[in-house]
Amino acid sequence: MGETTETGARPRLRHCTLVALAGERLAMIVGDERFELEQVQGTRDAFLRMKRYLDGRHTLEEIAQRSDVSFGSVRTIVGQLEEFGLLRRERPAATIAAADFLERVERSTRMWRAQIGYHRLFGMLERGEASRDLIAGLLLETYHFVRLAPRHVGAAIAHCRDQAMAELLCGYLADEYAHHGLIAASVEKLGIPREQIRDAHPVIGTLSLVNMLCEVGRASSLGYLCCLKLIEASPEDEAGARGAWREIARAAGLDADVFDGLMRHMRIDVGAGHAGLLEQALARMPDVPADAAHVAINHMHDVKHAFDQFHDQVIQYYTDMSNYVPRLKVDFFSL
């Protein structure tokens, strides 16, 4: 049990998130399923070395040679992964049923949103390790991200070839157009004047995230709607967010209402159903072209990683005591 003799096979893992647990244990999260891997023999590092070759390009023998793990161990591990349904099973088809596509996107959204939440920035916030500047920086960059939303929504509308999708996106643009003022209200509660907020310049991670969404909007309407599914708050998110942000405020020694503007923005977005735009767009479609589905999922995955970069940049800039807060533009007279 748990062994495969198909030595010519080139196994590929389904997309997963690996989370280090105590000792040598690992958790593997695939969609909304969680598998805990306990050490029986070997080390966690040996498993991770082997895992990198489960990419559909290497035979079992090649995996064993390159990872310095015995062929027997590789065969057993791959067999167990297959038994649990963790290996990719490709079924070539011209179309994918819309219901299947939505179900897979929903599960992946939960996984990737959780992965975004694993970023060390949120651990710092929860443990009360984030400085006032870092909290202000996160709010400032969130303000910029919301303020610049018309750029990527506009790009998506301009390149959308489906009239019904374009109308959905026009409604989304109208909803989001002035929401940055709600975030600015939270920034002001940290003592930064509105004029300085308006004149502030975003860090590169924020601009990169916005530009990536612009590119997705130009390249794939379906991909753009998938990305909105990832970045827009759901009712479940709103339910736990208020208490979480109040606890962050308490841990940082801030007034309990400092994040009220942020929460109001979330509440309005949830009420408008922004996280459900993809479902609305596909309601009249029985299936989705497979090529378009693959492209859309890849865009969604890239944007997930762009959020990691965004949070990296927030930490990098706003923990440097020499940097200006808010960030200033560099103009001709600055040279």
From TrEMBL:
Residues 43-83 form the GATOR1 complex protein NPRL3 C-terminal HTH domain. InterPro entries: Haem_Oase-like_multi-hlx, HTH_NPRL3, WH-like_DNA-bd_sf, WH_DNA-bd_sf. This is GATOR1 complex protein NPRL3 C-terminal HTH domain-containing protein. It comes from Burkholderia lata (strain ATCC 17760 / DSM 23089 / LMG 22485 / NCIMB 9086 / R18194 / 383).
